[in-house]
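To close the section, here is one more complete example, presented without commentary so you can practise reading it yourself. The ligand is pyridoxal-5'-phosphate.
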Amino acid sequence: MNDIEKNLLLVQQRIAAAAERARRDPRDITLVAVSKTQPGAAILAAHALGAQHFGENRVEEAREKIPLIKRQLQTATWHLIGHLQSRKVKDAVALFDVVQSVDSLALAQRLSERAMSLGKTISILLEVNVSGEPTKSGFVLASRVEFFDAARAISALPHLDTQGLMTLAPIVPNPDDTRPYFRALRELRDELRAQMPNRAWQHLSMGMTDDFESAIAEGATIVRIGRAIFGERK
Ligand SMILES: *Cc1c(COP(=O)(O)O)cnc(C)c1O
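Output:
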């Protein structure tokens, strides 16, 4: 077995074990293989081993890589997980199926307009900066009313399918210490559901290599895992 194969199997086993501990169905958890900085060959290898979802954090890098392998990866789904600048919306809509990093109403409006002109619907998640760390992007919750107003307006935009929330936990020595941040995202989702029962807000994208088991314990439906699959980034 090569490393990607071994790693992918181990990650899938760890996801299943974490789901079982939380009395959840592992099939309710989607693995996004975070392929940023990885060459196309590594992505193709992971796809051949069953990875279906890939995450990239930079539009420029995706623009170089995805078109070269897209034909061989017809069934794959591409997720943008990094901050999106409005001037890159056009490329992002062409390249990605899911934008997990929507962090303003203005950005969502641009995505909606662009998706409309391509006759396409883009799935989106709202990125929330739960910890409030200044280095992170995402909606801050200083004003919850403002966040809920934005979420309501975004979920009404055409050509966007608003599916839930995404967050990154702070880097902490003990992965258990990330749980309050993941729990807070789940509670926020529950509030959105209560306020907007016509929307499922079904996805919670949370958990990476160092903390995905904690995220699954708190209800993650999407985990974004890079290093545990592809090895350390150079
Ligand atoms: C890089 C990245 C990940 C994956 O991180 P790993 O520690 O390699 O698992 C997940 N989410 C986002 C937003 C990232 O930028």
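Once you have examined the tokens, check your reading against these statements. Residues 34, 36, 57, 81-82, 168, 208-210, 224-228 surround pyridoxal-5'-phosphate (CB under 6 Å). The mean pLDDT is 97.
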